[in-house]
Protein 1
Amino acid sequence: MGPGGMDADRIREIMGEAPACPRQGRGTSGNDIMRPTRKSVPMQPSVYGKEYLHGIAGMQRRSLHIPAALHRKLSILTGASRNGKVTLEGFINHLVSRHLEEYRETVEMILEESLPGRS
């Protein structure tokens, strides 16, 4: 069961994620979850840069484990920003903020179910 007594697969369904399906011979950590590939047309690098390669300042610092391979890719992306001033923290904050805004209604439903009566 997930937060608020919801089934973890139901939360994934609401959030538009694939159910956990570990690759054969591997563990079940979040790094091993297979997700469907994106079928849309690739975004042009210039559009991607304008959309994502700027940061949001961090207010409080918290630790977050990022697998080495993913960290390397994210570091390369942030290094490719036009002004060279994008931090990995800012980039990740921006991505998560955009995701939460894109799925705002779904997130609100999950939060309301998990934390009834919150304002």
Note: Residues 17-38 have pLDDT under 50 and may be disordered.
Protein 2
Amino acid sequence: ELLDGFGVRVDPGRPLHTLGIGTQQMVALARAVSVRAQVVIMDEPTSSLEPREVETLFRVIENLRGQGIAVLYVSHRMDE
């Protein structure tokens, strides 16, 4: 359900390592949210993502912030 909220569709029976990097990152983020993490730390989360996946990630981050979850985001890209 969390992944659907992130706009990501995943077959629950599919091994994680067979998913694309962007999908793997969304799964990791969903795991953090599912355990009610109060802080999410991201190190270079967009480094291997396609532009569409970057947009999705930023929407998810805004959603998390709206829920009161602190997000620490590290990037070497000045445009982020």
Note: Helices lie at 2-5, 21-34, 51-66.
